[in-house]
Amino acid sequence: MRLITCISGKLLILILHLNHNLLKILNNFCNLLKVAFTLSPFPH
Q1: The pTM is what?
Q2: What b/e readout covers 19-38, taking b as 16+ CB neighbours within 10 angstroms?
Q3: Could you give the CA distance from residue 14 to residue 6 in angstroms, rounded to a whole number?
Q4: How far apart are CA 31 and CA 23, in angstroms?
Q5: 4: how many CB neighbours lie within 10 A of its CB?
Q6: Rounded distance, CA 41 to CA 6, Å?
Q7: Average per-residue pLDDT in the chain?
């Protein structure tokens, strides 16, 4: 039982870590989109 708790704890940390990186990537992507829209000749 202890092993399962340990493994799920590590998995949780890994998932949270990946989510944090994904959020950063998404945030960067949104910023890039904003810049692209600002620089684009299309009407806003």
Answers
A1: 0.53
A2: eeeeeeeeeeeeeeeeeeee
A3: 12
A4: 12
A5: 8
A6: 54
A7: 87
